[in-house]
Specification:
With 159 residues, this protein is α/β, with parallel strands linked by helices. The protein contains five helices and seven strands; from the N terminus they run E-H-E-H-E-E-H-H-E-E-E-H.
């Protein structure tokens, strides 16, 4: 099951991300388990913008910084933990083992992972694969479900 849409600009990306946040939250609460989302795209495709919109859609009020140097940025909500990963600067997937990556996946949390291919062999399979492709003046977003939870989420998005 797939979903695809053209997003004209940053505002459209943020609006879509807020809609996505609602579906992510509902799916996590209904299934009582976490979700792993891989965000794929070239530099500047909108991965961090989409992540920011999801976090704002979940109720985050502050700034959303890219965790390019820290690898992970945690966000705590009253009933949900979100971990935003950016693996762009990671040289070896084994680095994830040293940071205790498995602990993040034992929790019923939301894991947003940019540059997931750099963690191949260590990261678990994604529930959702989100591809962002620049098509000026905006971008195209394509979402592929990789699990039952992912398929349920796409149904909630209205695909």
């Amino acid at each position: 099951m797939n979903f695809s849409s053209y997003l004209d600009n940053e505002q459209a990306t943020l609006a879509f991300a807020e809609r996505l946040a609602s579906a992510l939250y509902k799916t996590i609460k209904q299934r009582a388990q976490g979700l792993t989302v891989y965000l794929n795209g070239t530099l500047g495709a909108g991965k961090t913008t989409l992540s920011r919109g999801v976090l704002q859609g979940l109720g985050h009020k502050g700034a959303v910084k890219s965790p390019t140097y820290t690898l992970v940025e945690p966000y705590e909500f009253s009933d949900l933990s979100v971990y935003h990963f950016d693996l762009y600067r990671m040289a070896d997937a084994e680095e994830l083992e040293y940071m205790g990556i498995r602990d993040y996946f034992d929790l019923p949390s939301l894991r947003l992972i940019e540059w997931a291919q750099r963690g191949e062999g260590v990261l678990p399979e994604a529930d959702l694969l989100i591809d962002l492709v620049v098509q000026l003046p905006g971008r195209t977003v394509t979402i592929q479900a990789n699990s039952e939870s992912g398929a349920q989420l796409l149904e909630q998005l209205g695909t």
